[in-house]
Amino acid sequence: MSREANPDTTDTPQVLLEHHLKQLRLPTFLREYDKVARQCAAESADYPRYLLRLTEQELLDRERRATERRIHQARFPVVKSLDTFEFLAIPAVNKALVLELARCEFLLRRENVLLLGNSGTGKTHLALALGLSACQRGHRVRFTTTAAMVHELLEAKDEKRLLRYQRQMAGYELLIVDELGFVPLSKSGAELLFEVFSQRYERGSTLVTSNLPFQEWTEVLGSERLTGALLDRLTHHVHILEMNGESYRLKQSKRKRGLQPNS
């Protein structure tokens, strides 16, 4: 007895394949399989080579998307790289150490980084660039300013979610805290900031930028005891980049106005 064709089962292999690739969440396979098939046919490449090319493209695209997610989740105010940092403009910077840090091996050892120097000498640029490098190497990163973090900590405390926020901050492989020293902190804010650094001690890497030398941190934190305990934790396993010199931004501004750098 013959069976009539069911009009609802007219899916072609191509339609079914594309459906399965969507279900398997293989967007690069879906986008490239036909083009790669034609390329392989023209080159007389066999099936394993065809699949190899597709899987390689899928993996590359997956890593690219994962890197983009990590960069987005890091909350960088802007994306900066070492390629755009003018080392010659800030000769005090230890370029060899910067390039070593960009390999991100210090994260595996849970070491800290301190960038110290005058305003406008590129501390934030380097912090962003090292954060970007960490994201590109698969590490979870968070960028914040000192003022913003203290505000978030105080808000979390008021809203009874401080422990959750602290666990979140402790979970990043690299926490970048920019601009320590720009604004004096309240007693409560300084204590909460210290707690974050303390919880990360030997568990994750923390990068801090500051326009103040260590002996002046007490003016920001308000307590010699707290400052000493904080520095003890930050400097135990640390790389320090001294970035003193004339403001790079000031030099640029003077050049635009046609003035000599030392005028």
The major sheet is characterized as: 5 strands, parallel
Tell me the name of the CATH class of the largest domain: Alpha Beta
Order of helices and strands: HHHHHEHEHHEHEHHEH
Helix fraction by DSSP (H/I, runs of at least 4): 40-55%
Residue ranges: pLDDT <50 for 5 or more in a row? 1-9
CATH topology of the largest domain: Rossmann fold
Q: Mean pLDDT, nearest integer?
A: 89
In short:
By secondary structure, the protein is of the alpha/beta class.
List the helices and strands and how they pair.
Blueprint: H1 13-23, H2 27-42, H3 47-74, H4 95-102, H5 105-108, E1 112-116, H6 123-136, E2 141-145, H7 146-158, H8 162-170, E3 174-180, H9 187-200, E4 205-210, H10 217-221, H11 224-234, E5 238-242, H12 248-256
Parallel strand pairs: 1-4, 1-5, 2-3, 3-4
Helix pairs in contact: 2-3, 3-6, 7-8, 7-9, 9-11
Description:
By secondary structure, this protein is an alpha/beta fold. It folds into two domains: about 10-70, no CATH class; about 75-255, Rossmann fold, CATH 3.40.50.300. The protein has twelve helices and five strands. Helix 2 (about 25-40) runs antiparallel to helix 3 (about 45-75), helix 7 packs antiparallel against helix 8 (about 160-170) and helix 9 packs parallel to helix 11 (about 225-235). About 25% of the residues are buried.
Name the features.
alpha/beta; five-stranded parallel sheet; disordered N terminus; single chain; Rossmann fold; 263 residues; elongated
